[in-house]
Each structure stands twice: as C-alpha cells, then as structure tokens.
Design goal:
By secondary structure, the protein is α/β, with parallel strands linked by helices. The protein contains 13 helices and 14 strands. Strands 3, 4, 5, 6, 7, 8, 9, 10 and 14 form a nine-stranded parallel β-sheet that branches. A three-stranded antiparallel β-sheet has the order 11-13-12. The chain has a two-stranded antiparallel ribbon with strand order 1-2. The termini are far apart.
Length: about 325
C-alpha cells in the first residue's frame, strides 16, 4: 500500500494501512494531517533557534537531529511493539527500587550494592557491567535511538541472563538494541512534547503504538526513576544518576561536546559544581538546567521517598544514603 505525501510515496503494509486508517478515522485525522504531525518543521526550528536560550537550543537541536532516527526506529520496531506488552501492564513494584545510572558514582560504589534487597533497574549502558559484577537487574531500560547503543549490550553474558530480566524500551529506541535483546520486552511512548495538544509528536506516536506515555526527563537515568515511581516502588534509591563528570574530565569526552564544539566559546556550555557533599564536579547546561531541574522537581513534589546513594551526583536536593548500608540489609 502506498500513501502520498507532498508528491512522495510512503510504502506500508496493507495490514498496517488498515489499522492506521481506522485509527485516523476515529480521531478525525486525514493522512495528510497525521503525516504532517510526524514531519519536523526545520524551517520553523531555525527561526526559533535565534530566539531561545542555550538550554532550549540544545533541546531543540536534539529533537531536530534525532527526529528522523526516532521515526525510522519506530517503523522498524512497529511489529515488535504491537506484539509486546505495555509498560502499564507490568506488576506493581512492592519492594524498594535501586536505579542504576552509568555516572561515576555507579562505578565507585558497585561493590557496595551487591547486597541490596529489592528491585534493581539499570540502563543499557551498564547492564553488562552489572552482570559481570554479580548484579542481576530485574529490568534494564533503553531510551536512546542511536544504533551505537547496541554495543553496550552486545556481549554473550546478556544471553545467559535474558530469561531473568525484562527489557523496557522506548518505542523510538534503537532497533538494533531491540533486536539484540532475547528476553521479555515491554514498550512505552516517551514524552517528547505536550500530548494534550492534538498535533504533537508524542500524541501521534501514542496513537500509532497504543503504548503508555511516560515522562523520561530527557535521560535514561531519569527514566529509571520515572518507571520506579509509576510502578509505585517505595522507597527509591539513586546511584549513578549523577548528571555530572569527575572534575578533571575534558570537555571533548562529554556528551554535550557534539553541540558545544561549534560555539565560539564552548566553555560556556559547561560549569563547575560543588555538591552538598563537598565534591567538585564538571557538569553542563543540559545536565544542570534540564535534567537535574526536572528530576528534582518531580522528586520533591511527589509523595515518594527518594535517596541519593552517589556522592558524584548533582542531584543533591535529597537525603544521602550510604550504599555500604545495603550490606546490613537495611532494606
């Protein structure tokens, strides 16, 4: 089946065409309207970039640069998504949850978390290291759409434990990661823009996939907290969700360098931060002004108790819990 959009042919299977046509009829959308929602208006973005802050620019650049990749991944993941469970169908977490990001705190404290009693969630970036250190997470999460993410899980050890771990995937995450994972798969729609508005990317993807919309905070580490919270885990412990680097990390080794490097003064994208534990760190405007601000706002305005277990973190608005205490089975 071929759909016309601006004199371009878009090929999809007859089965998908019929299901989408039914969906669009229900929501009173034409094919042109539906496809327009999934078409990023780069001209408007270019004009907008001259009017917004550096943090908003970084966010806009991310959406602009990732848009085509996300839609390509959605297309490749579509059949797996339709055959897999929805995030909201997972059982409630009735234990404490330990969320393991890949920041420096995780690598410093990994030996102290082996005695944790509860539900463990990690990112694809640190899944292999967890397993090789005797930590078998209950869930691992993949948010990023970049094909390079497959390299983090492309290790034979994950096949040994795949039956014991559930993979939780964004519908727009890397198809290479989804294909590589041999265990159970669960999907969600990432919150990209306001789904309460009709013509938004999040709303359109949600309608296409019928998977729950989840706030993600722009980062896989944040996503671990949002999943734990949505599944009612109490309390939640954070480790490696640092949004920072060790103080002597070169700018060129940071995630934001690919955006900052073209600036006349790349240093203005970065900042020094001394957290309340007295540790001097390097962070950047996205980490500090977006990810930290968003996650701390959610944490402090919910009825859940969250503890910080990492001293290399800038998420320091919450009470510190020494991960060595996990050895005393305090959970």
């Amino acid at each position: 089946m071929t759909v016309m959009k601006e004199n371009k042919n878009i090929s999809i299977s007859h089965e998908i065409y019929e299901s989408l046509q039914e969906l669009f009829d229900y929501h009173k959308l034409t094919w042109d309207e539906a496809l327009e929602i999934l078409t990023f208006k780069r001209k408007e973005l270019s004009e907008l970039l001259t009017q917004i802050s550096d943090v908003e620019k970084a966010t806009a650049y991310t959406i602009a640069n990732k848009h085509d990749l996300w839609i390509t991944n959605l297309k490749k993941n579509f059949h797996v998504i339709s055959e897999s469970k929805n995030l909201k169908d997972l059982p409630e977490i009735k234990t404490p949850a330990l969320c393991l990001g890949n920041g420096p705190s995780f690598h410093e404290e990994i030996d102290n978390i082996k005695s944790f009693k509860g539900t463990v969630l990690c990112c694809e970036r640190n899944l292999v290291k967890c397993l090789k250190n005797g930590i078998v997470p209950d869930y691992f999460v993949s948010l990023d759409g970049d094909p390079i993410m497959k390299t983090f899980i492309d290790d034979s050890i994950i096949d040994e434990y795949a039956d014991n771990i559930t993979g939780i995937f964004s519908v727009t995450c890397s198809n290479e990661v989804v294909s590589r994972w041999g265990g159970k798969k669960v999907f969600f729609t990432p919150y990209v823009d306001d789904p309460n508005l009709v013509k938004t990317m999040t709303r359109m993807i949600h309608l296409l996939t019928d998977k729950s919309i989840l706030q993600v905070g722009g980062n896989c580490g944040s996503t671990l907290w949002f999943i734990s919270y949505s599944l009612h885990a109490k309390p939640i412990y954070l480790l490696g969700i640092d949004f920072a680097y060790k103080h002597d990390t070169p700018y060129e080794e940071t995630q934001l360098w690919k955006y900052a490097k073209d600036d006349d003064d790349p240093s203005r994208w970065f900042m020094e931060y001394t957290n309340k534990y007295g540790v001097k760190l390097l962070t950047d405007i996205m980490f500090h002004n977006n990810f930290k601000a968003s996650l701390e706002s959610w944490i402090t305005h919910t009825d859940n108790t969250t503890y910080q277990c990492g001293k290399y973190s800038i998420v320091d608005c919450i009470e510190y819990f020494n991960p060595k205490n996990f050895k005393e089975n305090v959970c």
